[in-house]
Amino acid sequence: MEILAFGVQADEKPLIEKAFAGVHEVRCLDVFLTEDTAAIAVGHEVISTSVNAQLNAEVLRALAAGGTAMIAQRSTGFNNIDLEVAEQLGLTIARVSTYSPYSVAEFAWTLAMAVNRRIVRASNRTRDFDFRLDGLMGRDMRGRTVGVLGTGRIGEAFTRIAHGFGMELLGWDIAPAPGCVELGMKYVDKDELVAAADLISLHVPLLPATHHLIGADELRAMKDDAILVNSSRGGLIDSDALVGELRKGRFSGVGLDVYEAEAGLFFLDKSMEAVDDDTLARLMTFPNVLVTSHQAYYTVDAVAQIVDTTARNIKDHLAGRRGENVLVPAAAAP
Ligand SMILES: NC(=O)c1ccc[n+]([C@@H]2O[C@H](COP(=O)([O-])OP(=O)(O)OC[C@H]3O[C@@H](n4cnc5c(N)ncnc54)[C@H](O)[C@@H]3O)[C@@H](O)[C@H]2O)c1
Question: Does the predicted TM-score (pTM) go above 0.85?
Answer without folding.
Answer: yes
